[in-house]
Amino acid sequence: MSKELEVQGLTLYHFSACMFCIKVRFFLWRKGIKVSQKDILIHPQYAQELIAGGGKKQVPCLRIESENTVQWLYESTDIINYFKSKLKNG
Ligand SMILES: N[C@@H](CCC(=O)N[C@@H](CS)C(=O)NCC(=O)O)C(=O)O
Questions:
Q1: What is the pLDDT of residues 7-30, one digit of tens each?
Q2: Closest CA to 81 of 71, 69, 90, 72
Q3: Which of 4, 13, 28, 57 can bridge 61 by disulfide, Cβ–Cβ 3.0-4.6 Å?
Q4: What CATH number is given for 12-86 in this structure?
Q5: Measured in angstroms, how far is the CA atom of residue 23 from the centroid of ligand 1?
Q6: Among the atoms of ligand 1, which is closest to the Cα of residue 17?
Q7: Which atom number of ligand 1 is nearest to the Cα of residue 59?
């Protein structure tokens, strides 16, 4: 990944005041990574999507779609580590 990269196939479910979400969003901002974001408090239908797909209403959660598979990654640290694993320089 490089600076100011808009990543396709990734969606971050979150809400603005959630500290764990802030941690992830700050990491993404610092690294210049842009992903689609869905606020589950502003749009309750996103919360329903999250529960239906990931199994629980916990944020942050990163929906990772690649080819024909969809993975729902919970836990802020795991989400950050996912991005770090994709970055050349961490
Ligand atoms: N260990 C989790 C904690 C996430 C968490 O507690 N998120 C809260 C919002 S700040 C939440 O979604 N609570 C609702 C729930 O767990 O059902 C992380 O680091 O992501």
A1: 889 999 999 999 999 999 999 999
A2: 90
A3: 13
A4: 3.40.30.10
A5: 12
A6: 10
A7: 12
Distance 60 CA to ligand 1 centre (A): 7
Residue located nearest, by CA, to atom 16 of ligand 1:
58
- Buried b vs exposed e over 14-39: b needs ≥16 C-beta within 10 Å? bbeebebbeebbeebeebebebebbb
Ligand 1 binding site (Cβ under 6 Å of any ligand atom):
18-20, 56-60, 75-77
Give the residue extent of every domain in the chain. Answer: 12-86
Residues in the chain with pLDDT values less than 50? 1-2
